[in-house]
Design a protein that fits this description.
elongated
Amino acid sequence: MIQTLTAMPIPGLIRKIAVPASVGFFFNTMFNAVDTWYGGRISTQALAALQGIRQPMFALWIGLWRQIVAPAAVFWLLIRLYEVGLTGVWWGIFGITWSAAATAWLYARHQLTKAGQELT
């Protein structure tokens, strides 16, 4: 039996929504902290590239992808087409977060390689 958000008790909703979201935010923060630490160990230029100072548009595109484009498409697909409900939303958040992380990793690798070629 599928319950809607308006029919479920508030404490249960907090456990089902807020706790996984908090865990996701924690891991996202840890990803950024580790990314910054490793970038800082390489060089200040690498750290600047990872923080979006050298290419500020990258942060904008990743933000748009993670906050608007991917959620709208993924959630529509999971909820409407596959009818998976709230579980599908959490799998969608998982997939979007990891696709953005993979994109950021590929972009940072490309930028660091390009910066290394400019130095030689």
